[in-house]
Amino acid sequence: MLLDDILTQIKAYDTIIIHRHVNPDPDALGSQGGLAASIQAAYPDKRVLKAGGEVGNLDWLSTMDDVQDADYQNALVIAVDTADTPRVSDQRFNTGKYLIKIDHHPNDDAYGDLLWVVPDASSTSELIFDLIQHSNGQLKLNAQVARLLYAGIVGDTGRFLYNNTSAHTLQVAAALIQEDFDPTALNNRMNAISFAQAKLQSYVFNHLHISEAGAGSVEIPLSVVNELGLTKDQVHAAVGTPGRLGEVVAWVIFVEQADGEPYRVNLRSKGPIINGLAKQHNGGGHPLASGARAQNREEIEAITKQLEALVAESEH
């Protein structure tokens, strides 16, 4: 069985390095950190390292280790929550001896020596819990592991509001909160935004255009981000803002980047499938939550019109 093969590889290696995607969200950090803590608790003599770049304002959830090039020699590398290789944070991930991919995104880039990809799962953190349960004691569940996995599940389900929340997801969450951590404090920390982020959400509401069919679109200029003193990862707090409006069925937010860099495109939907649209513009992701890139204003206008047409067609 595939899960048994993963457990066999974990048992076989003395050094295990776990990677996740760039610009990490709670699920990336939760699945990475939760798996690392679970392995370390089960095998205290192993070296288990977390690799990747800066984690932004999520450093309270997890931080990275100082991983050297030499650490990859004869190492098992596990990439979690990362659909395609360009998005792996720290491209040394493919320099180990063996590579495992664990993910819940569509498997458009089937990299690795061993792949466990379940697009129907709410999150990669949910998959890590399933792996721990399947291990029958070969991996450990403790308060540290549970806190990280719970954060990942809460993050990727939008606090259990999204349609990727299954009965199994809620069963996993129920099992995790039986461990000795404070889920209420964690939820409050994840739900908190700064005054500057609240002002950005106000900007989105004030500048949002909504088509007759319910396609929302808004552009966030770099000047607004700079005026509010926000970092790139802090801007993400505004991505779900249009979805709070009953009139909005699907929406796109264009975030201007530094000179010469493409616009960051955030696509979200309450029903119409939008990851196909994202793939047409150097992106991809989940059916109802995807990202892309827009090189210029012409591409911004093209994406906006395509989303409006997609939402209009979904009514029939």
TrEMBL record:
InterPro entries: DDH_dom (IPR001667), DHH_sf (IPR038763), DHHA1_dom (IPR003156), Oligoribo/pAp-PDE_c-di-AMP_PDE (IPR051319). Residues 227-312 form the DHHA1 domain. It comes from the Bacteria. This is Phosphoesterase, DHH family protein. Residues 16-153 form the DDH domain. One of its GO terms (molecular function) is nucleic acid binding. It comes from Lacticaseibacillus manihotivorans DSM 13343 = JCM 12514.
